[in-house]
Design brief:
Layout lengths: L16 H5 L9 H12 L2 H31 L3 H4 L2 H8 L15 H20 L15 H5 L30 H16 L11 H13 L9 H14 L1 H9 L5 H27 L4 H4 L3 H16 L3 H5 L2 E5 L2 E4 L3 H31 L6
Antiparallel strand pairs: 1-2
Helix pairs in contact: 3-6, 3-8, 3-10, 5-6, 8-9, 12-14, 14-16
């Protein structure tokens, strides 16, 4: 499913889930970051991949019907007289099938109607219409590619700079064949739906049964076959994964391995500072020597505060957020950056306050040699 790249400004709110899926957000709350979160922390990236594959299947169907409409109306206008009245009506009233869409956008109803129109035509085409874009002039495909089930790749969501506006062009730079749509639907079925599939997703039994019957027994491959499953996975991710993603990316800027590393480093530095402080006190060392306690206490308190608040305040003030261990991206989403700066300032103030209190305590306390 194609998505818009530009986004309406959100000066005073966090992005919604559909805005993330539609690639209307910037790091660290973009689709790339959500994918990494689902893969590394939720351990349920199969649900997101399923949703994206179904969206790409819908885009594939739209492109196929759009090419078919173009071939009928431009290259072979006389063919329209020989096609069925229903096919002609559907093609004439489709409009632009490559418009951006999303489950919760303002144009959702219009997009749903377009998807229903595409599905209606594909069912009609599957029942008897033999015309397809690859049969028009200058667009013949090799039959061997169809036999091997070649499927155009989904537009990369693993790159923040992917040109989403180019999704309306031919996938992979070639004409979509009817067999591509069938292969796409079957791949989704065999990869995600059937029991014991390679990346099986948990769906209600009724939805699984409906999809299996529609594809294997009824021979359907239109987008409506996956509508209920797509809506179910969307709601599941929005309810179970998206709130945690926002908490992780808006109120924190480090990933769990970095948090654990800071915990270990903080505990070691803090206890080393405590040990050294008591040794210096009970050896009655002068204050200028005790000033070396600044180093372990600063490292310990800073690391423990970073672990506790899920945030490295200096990295946040520098405008950086960690998406995988030791890999950082710029914080580009305006509202997220503003919230991150406030929280980083608070964490840094708490860290400095605790650190100064500990350092003053152990430096200026009177020594007593045992």
């Amino acid at each position: 499913m194609a998505h818009q790249q530009s986004a309406e400004p959100r000066p005073n709110r966090l992005p919604s889930f559909i805005e993330v899926l539609d690639r209307k957000t910037k790091p660290p709350v973009d689709l790339f970051s959500f994918y990494i979160y689902m893969r590394d922390q939720q351990r349920s990236v199969d649900y997101l991949d399923f949703w994206l594959d179904v969206s790409q299947h819908t885009h594939l169907c739209r492109h196929y019907v759009s090419e078919l409409r173009r071939s009928i109306l431009v290259e072979t206008p006389d063919l329209e007289k020989t096609t069925s009245k229903r096919s002609s009506y559907v093609l004439d009233h489709m409009g632009d099938t490559n418009d951006p869409s999303g489950p919760s956008t303002e144009s959702h109803n219009d997009e749903k109607l377009k998807d229903q129109t595409v599905s209606a035509y594909l069912r009609q085409d599957n029942n008897g219409s033999n015309h397809s874009p690859q049969s028009s002039l200058g667009s013949r495909r090799s039959a061997s590619a169809i036999r091997y089930g070649e499927r155009p790749p989904r537009p990369s969501f693993m790159s923040r700079n992917s040109p989403t506006g180019s999704e309306s062009s031919s996938p992979g730079g070639r004409v979509v064949a009817r067999a591509d749509i069938r292969a796409s639907a079957e791949k989704i079925l065999y990869t995600y739906i059937l029991p014991g599939a390679e990346r099986e997703v948990t769906l209600p039994h009724g939805i699984l049964q409906d999809i299996t019957v529609a594809i294997e027994e009824e021979g359907r491959d239109d987008p409506e076959v996956f509508d209920m499953a797509k809506d179910y996975t969307f709601q599941a991710m929005e309810r179970d994964a998206f709130p945690g993603f926002l908490r992780a990316k808006v109120f924190g800027n480090i990933v769990p391995p970095s948090r654990f590393l800071r915990l270990v480093l903080g505990l070691i530095a803090f206890f080393a500072g405590m040990w050294a402080a008591f040794v210096l006190i009970f050896l009655d060392k002068p204050k200028h020597i005790r000033c070396w306690l600044i180093l372990p206490f600063t490292i310990g308190v800073y690391s423990l505060a970073s672990h506790q608040y899920h945030m490295d305040p200096l990295l946040a003030l520098a405008g950086l957020s960690e998406y995988t261990f030791c890999n950082f991206s710029r914080i580009e989403e305006p509202y997220v950056r503003k919230m991150m700066m406030r929280r980083a300032s608070m964490v840094l103030f708490i860290t400095i306050s605790i650190g100064v209190a500990l350092i003053c305590l152990f430096i200026f306390v009177p020594g007593h040699r045992l």
